Amino acid sequence: MVSGIRTSEPAGGSTPRRALEDRQGTGTRPDKGSDAGRQTGSPGGQGGGSPREGFKQDPSANETEIDPRAQAIIRRLPVREENTGKTRGLWFGRDGSESPLVSGYDRYQEMADRYADERLGLGPLAKATHVEIKFAMFMRERGLRDETIYLNNDPCKGPASCRRWLGSFLPPGAKLTIHWPDGGPETFDGKS
């Protein structure tokens, strides 16, 4: 695992380690329903299957409607209050395994800085440390085309924001849907 993004499967075919086990008393969101604390997407079948089952995006769907299943997943993440601390999130692979995501400096941030400099003519960006931009680089590296992530913070706004630049970092034609506390989904499309 590299900076919260799974880069290989566990050795010996073992079950992947759960990223957020035993989170009691650590600042996670309180249970707001019977499904809120469930370990969804477990390869062992706990939690009723992969979160991907029910998150198929209808292109005509109103993206301003908040998805209660997504919010149940987000409630498992640490609360990020008053714009402090790292943004954390979850991504579920095609096999239902979950991988933690975290903002900060790592090889995906370095890839984003190189991409911003070489392909976009921007030079290094502070936004390259943001989960959304780093995940876009992960999608490029893996050839992923349509993914969904769940974050404890909404995508930043403004002229030099993730909302402004994410489409430029995504692979052309790819889609990244983001859910966050009491918001989303918002789908970003990769530009050519």
Provide structural commentary.
Strand 3, helix 4 and strand 4 form a beta-alpha-beta unit. A five-stranded mixed sheet has the order 2-1-3-4-5, sandwiched between helices. Helices cover 20% and strands 15% of the residues. It has four helices and five strands, in the order αββααβαββ. About 30% of the residues have low confidence. By secondary structure, the chain is α+β, with helices and mostly antiparallel strands. Helix 2 packs across helix 3. It has a domain of 120 residues: Cytidine Deaminase, domain 2.
Mean pLDDT: 75
Give me the Rg, rounded: 16 Å
- Roughly what fraction of the amino acids lie in strands? 15-25%
The counted number of beta strands is 5
End-to-end Cα distance: 29 Å
Structural class based on helices, strands and sheet pairing: alpha+beta
List keywords for this structure.
Cytidine Deaminase, domain 2, 5-stranded mixed β-sheet
Summarize the structure.
The chain is an alpha+beta fold. It contains four helices and five strands, in the order αββααβαββ. It has a domain at 67-79 and 86-192: Cytidine Deaminase, domain 2 (3-Layer(aba) Sandwich).
How are the elements arranged and paired?
Layout: H1 68-74, E1 88-92, E2 98-102, H2 107-118, H3 131-142, E3 146-151, H4 162-169, E4 175-180, E5 183-189
Parallel strand pairs: 3-4
Antiparallel strand pairs: 1-2, 1-3, 4-5
